[in-house]
Design brief:
Strand content: 5-15%
Order of helices and strands: HHHHHHHHHEEEHEEHEHHHHEHEEEHH
CATH topology of the largest domain: ABC transporter transmembrane region fold
CATH class of the largest domain: Mainly Alpha
Structural class: alpha/beta
Number of helices: 18
CATH superfamily of the largest domain: ABC transporter type 1, transmembrane domain
Number of domains: 2
Low-confidence stretches: 1-12
Largest sheet: 6 strands, mixed
Helix content: 55-70%
Radius of gyration: 35 Å
């Protein structure tokens, strides 16, 4: 299921959306139980404080009597109050540590799970979801979840326990006053729920707008040379500013709604406190309760009012986190249409390269359902053969590679590798048997050594150097400031196009797969480097099956067979000499290139 676009997403979340976090919390049940224990103990210590205060007022501050006994009594009461304070401090510290640990741990697990899941998505997922939006969910949304799990949720539970406890104590000691207080609480809760719904909708909208601006930034920063070459810096800055401004406006609307909710809760709880205090003073004047009883009642009302106020704040945080959790669960719920089978088959060990068969394959890209990328494509490649795919742009050459790697599955027909349908092979095992050198090589932000070793993570330094030498990359690597340990920069910005290509070729050679895919592997090389790398590639092609995509026909004249594609159909195949003599599409392309 692809991630929905902003216009398709639900406009509101609710705290129940946080239920998606339960699988991430279950492994830490013991820590959660311990945190809850300390939370309850801290709340109980807070609720005991007014009882100790009542004893201090009624027993220790009574006029008359023995002054020395009264002083000793006061000391005892203050010792009790201090003991309560010590217990409250210790229990609160333990609760704070445990819930903070849980917040960090659960957020780290969630972030890792989402990232791992996204890495397993097919290219179809990224046709509808921008990379910047995924990054926004991994950072901004997980930070919101961490705030709730590691702080707000604990505060909410603690204040809920204290509020309920204070309510019980007030009902027990002042049932008449509490009847009136409960009515006032009801008048507070109902409008707060209305404010909450408003904040909930705006919270989700605000997070979506932030994701939009992140997506723009990621897209532009990844294409900064093109942006600068077209002097589009100001245009892109304005586009990002507009997206940020939209996020700001939505955030301010959310903040206004939440500010209104906070103001209402504070005013209402102040009214609650003053009404309880007024009723208590009237009862003391009437002689129905003692001053200590009044002090106890006032403190419990303060605790209750404070709990209601904090719960209102926490509810707002919960709503924001619920929206963030919902966005993260959308990512985790997305299922790639390309999956390993439940019971994968084992392909036989290849001897001298893999056998390959495309049997009447038809395919449409999900984003272009009316245009066939391949139609009735059949190709049989024997082990060890080198087959070149040529044809105009958009003919379907790259699609052949994508289907072979199972980035997509064909709508009709089947693809077999060493006699086994590739959709019956384990996806990891399938891709381990294939090496690819793309036209636009990917260089990671690490050293030359680690970039080549990416093809075989357990390879020794000697194996890496041998692969580099085979790809004629060792010469320029040795000349780098730190040799193989030189940091190549983001996307290999410290290398030329030809150098990046040779790193990619060395990476594929190190993997040593039985099937090699070359997508214009020498397109970025100068004439001298091309001759060296072509020789290296010819050596690498021995004892393995190779498919080559080529626009420059001079690089594939020695191929065992040349397959010509046009509009997704195989229109010609044969050797270079045969196809030129045939006088078809290939002959026309060859005439244009070789005459030029």
């Amino acid at each position: 299921m692809p991630v929905t676009t902003p216009s398709e997403r639900p406009k509101a979340s609710s705290p129940t959306s946080l239920s998606g976090l339960l699988p991430f919390m279950r492994p830490y049940r013991s820590q959660i139980a311990l945190a809850m224990l300390f939370l309850v103990l801290a709340a109980v210590a807070t609720l005991v404080f007014p009882v100790a205060l009542r004893g201090l007022i009624d027993s220790g501050l009574v006029p008359g009597g023995d002054r020395s006994a009264q002083a000793m009594g006061l000391r005892g009461h203050f010792v009790e109050l201090f003991a309560v304070a010590v217990a409250l401090g210790l229990f609160s510290a333990a609760r704070f540590y445990l819930v903070s640990w849980l917040g960090e741990r659960i957020t780290a697990d969630l972030r890792s799970a989402v990232y791992r899941h996204v890495l397993r998505q097919s290219p179809q997922f990224f046709e509808t979801t921008q990379t910047g939006e995924v990054l926004s969910r991994l950072t901004t949304d997980t930070t919101l979840v961490q705030t709730v799990v590691g702080s707000s949720l604990s505060m909410g539970l603690r204040n809920a326990v204290m509020g309920i406890g204070a309510l019980i104590m007030l009902v027990w000691t002042n049932p008449y006053v509490m009847l009136q207080v409960l009515l006032i609480i009801l008048l507070v809760v109902l409008p707060s729920m209305w404010f909450g719904r408003r904040v909930r909708k705006l919270s989700r909208a605000s997070q979506d707008r932030v994701a939009d601006s992140s997506a723009i930034a990621a897209e532009v920063l990844n294409a900064i040379p093109i942006v600068q070459s077209y002097t589009a810096e100001e245009r892109e800055a304005v586009r990002f500013r507009d997206a940020t401004e939209s996020a700001f406006v939505t955030a301010i609307r959310r903040t206004k709604a939440r500010a209104g909710m906070v103001a209402f809760i504070i005013i209402s709880t102040a009214a609650l406190l003053l009404w309880g205090l007024y009723q208590g003073t009237q009862a003391v004047l009437a002689g129905t309760i003692t001053p200590g009883h009044l002090g106890q009642t006032v403190v419990y009302i303060i605790i209750l009012a404070g709990a209601v106020g904090v719960l209102g704040e926490v509810y707002g945080d919960l709503l924001r986190a619920a929206g963030a959790s919902e966005r993260l669960m959308e990512l985790l719920a997305s299922e790639s249409p390309v999956q390993s089978p439940a019971r994968p088959l084992q392909a036989p060990a290849p001897q001298g390269g893999s056998a390959l068969l495309f049997d009447d394959v038809s395919f449409h890209y999900p984003s272009r359902p009316t245009q066939a990328a391949l139609s009735g494509f059949t190709l049989d490649v024997a082990p060890g053969q080198t087959v070149a795919l040529v044809g105009p742009s958009g003919a379907g050459k790259t699609t052949v590679f994508g289907l072979l790697l199972r980035y997509y599955d064909p709508a009709l027909g089947s693809i077999r590798l060493d006699g086994v349908p590739i959709d019956q092979l384990d996806l990891h095992a399938l891709r381990q048997r294939i090496g690819i050198v793309p036209q636009d090589p990917v260089i990671f932000s690490s050293s030359a050594l680690e970039n080549i070793r990416y093809g075989k993570p357990g390879a020794s330094d000697a194996e890496v150097r041998a692969a580099a030498a085979a790809a004629f990359a060792d010469e320029f690597i040795d000349q780098l400031p730190e040799g193989y340990d030189t940091f190549l920069g983001e996307r290999g910005v410290r290398l030329s196009g030809g150098q990046r290509q040779r790193i990619a070729i060395a990476r594929a050679m190190l993997k040593n797969p039985p099937l090699l895919l070359l997508d214009e592997a020498t397109s970025a090389l100068d004439a001298q480097s091309e001759r060296m790398v072509q020789a290296a590639l010819e050596s690498a092609m021995k004892d393995r099956t190779t498919l080559v995509i080529a626009h420059r026909l001079a690089t594939v004249q020695k191929a065992d067979r040349i397959v010509v594609l046009d509009h997704g159909r195989l229109v010609e195949q044969g050797t270079h000499t045969e196809l030129v003599a045939h006088g078809g599409l290939y002959a026309g392309l060859a005439a244009l290139q070789f005459q030029a």
